[in-house]
Amino acid sequence: MQSAPTITLDSYEITLSPMTLGDVPRLHELSIGVNWPHRPKDWMLLIELGEGFVARDEIGRILGSAMWFPMGERLASIGMVITSPRLQDQGAGRWLMDHILERVGARGKVLNATKAAYRLYLSMGFEPRQTVYQYNGVVTALPDGPAAARRLREEDAGTIVALDAAAYGASRSPVFERILPVSEGTVIERAGRVCAFALCREFGRGHVVGPVVAETEEDAITVIRPHVAAFKGRFLRMDTRAEDGPLRRFLEASGIPLYDTVTTMTRGEVPPPGPVTTYGLVNQALG
């Protein structure tokens, strides 16, 4: 039987092992330690959707994590790469990423890099593509806007999965199988065809709007506006790659400020932009 990979960092002997649902309490402690907002339920969702590794010390404490998520047959999203603050300058992140990249193999790779991890990913062959703007805060207002969206119906599920695939470049049906039952949704329907949608679910400190897929920023605003209305006075988050324009101004006018940015980076062959656009991410790990 092959022994588990180990490495010595800052006098700690670190062992790599597969991530399981039993690790959730300690993973939650790890993410809190770097000020990430993920709840235990958020970790559970990700573990159900992907494969991950944890780095443990000699007494079982989790000091690092990394995950990857298959997106169709040719693409993978990498995320939840966290190292304990005391090991961040000791090579733990690179060690975890080396194992993730080995598992991902020849698939195209996409991730969203924090400022702290950006140089590491550059050194590993990832190239910057777009900025992701993280908006979050307590909704204080509902700006004027079109009211053309309707509620998502059960029979819309197949259509929005296909619309998401057209925007993302790969089918993410397993993601939708998990998030649809716990989401509220809105769509725009024109001439009997659904052409935009937004989902909203519990995440982190409150709720997150995403994914959001539409042909234009105006349509994106139309499908997110009902969610903003529903959470007036409560915490709401949206991660978007939209540059400065109507969508981001709408979020700011709602009282949801820009909180942070990360950088979408890719390595290998990834799909080109599709006929519709992902205006809101599921989360930063899943894109």
TrEMBL record:
InterPro entries: Acyl/Acetyltrans_Enzymes (IPR052729), Acyl_CoA_acyltransferase (IPR016181), GNAT_dom (IPR000182), YitH/HolE_GNAT (IPR041496). Transmembrane segments: none annotated. Coiled coil: none annotated. Keywords: Transferase. SUPFAM superfamilies: Acyl-CoA N-acyltransferases (Nat). Residues 14-149 form the N-acetyltransferase domain. GO terms for molecular function: acyltransferase activity, transferring groups other than amino-acyl groups. Pfam families: Acetyltransf_18 (PF18014), Acetyltransf_7 (PF13508). This is Acetyltransferase (GNAT) domain-containing protein. The lineage of its organism: Bacteria, Pseudomonadati, Pseudomonadota, Alphaproteobacteria, Rhodospirillales.
